[in-house]
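Sync notes, pocket subgroup
Present: LS, DG
LS reminded everyone that the earlier model was apo-only. Rerun requested with S-adenosylmethionine included. Inputs:
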Amino acid sequence: MLMDRHGRTVSYLRLSVTDRCNLRCLYCRPAEAISFIPHERVLSYEEMIEIVAAAQELGVHKVRLTGGEPFARKDFVPFVARLHARFPKLDLRITTNATMLAGRMPELRDAGVRTVNISLDTLSPHTFAQITGVDAHRVVLAAIEEALASGIRVKINAVALRGINDTELPAFVDFARTYGVDVRFIEFMPIGYQCRWTEENFWPAEEIVAAFHAMEILRPETNTEPHSGPARMYRIIGSQGRLGVISAVSHHFCASCNRLRVTCEGRLRTCLFSDEEYDVAGVLRRPDYQRTQLLELFQRANAAKPLGYELLAARKRTNVCQRVMTTIGG
Ligand code: SAM
């Protein structure tokens, strides 16, 4: 079991399979062009399977595949199928922008995927292009409909951006009601060098919750799902749909943090807000590699896992860490 000095245990691993992405979301990466990690430094699928095996030995039972855009990596779906075949009990999830999802549903279902988290920050095609730099709103909506029609559950993640999508709550209520899905607004986090976070574009969860209450059609709901994470959810009365908030900045949930992250170049991060990284790839590529070496690295890293809110509080009007989200994976 992985327990840290604050008594927290780890059961959830976020594994980034690539830093490449076909969108350029303004909250996710700096304005300037970024260079991608060279292919030879990116973990192979075999190395990722070994990481999952080690993590599972240490008590991880939920793995989220993320990126970059995971579907942008060659042979991603066969990789998911391999993971599912090798670890059938693992709760395997994917976070995607859904631009490359069309036509993949049967394969995904066969690969054991029951739920996908889709990033969709706006219901306006124009604002979508403004946020992502790409005109793909229609493609994403079509993929959502296709996933739902094939019986794959969809959860929508929207980064809350004041001045950009803060007028869209009623539209998202209609959307969640129509499709019977969860929409979670994630507070914009000041992550990555040249991050565009400002006091002005930060739309705090409490304001969103106040707007939920004002709409009078949302009822707070206790999260009953196992490992449901830090979202606070509100049911749309008379509907399957729910809206929620993830207050990653204003109301931290460090005390219940159960996760670790591994970047696509094999760096273990124990806290989203900390640039302290541990060289998993270096261990895996040792000529005398044995799994115990990886288990020891995980143990040592996790023992020193910090409290992210302390790092956030110590930052001075700037980003809390240097790594950009496209390489961390959210
Ligand atoms: N390409 C995939 C996608 O779009 O979902 C996976 C990678 S993306 C980095 C994972 C998640 O991180 C998305 O839900 C995205 O909205 C979120 N994210 C990225 N930067 C963020 C930031 N600065 N604050 C809050 N959430 C962020």
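DG: The two ends are 24 Å apart (CA to CA).
LS: The chain has a mean pLDDT of 95.
Action: DG to write up.
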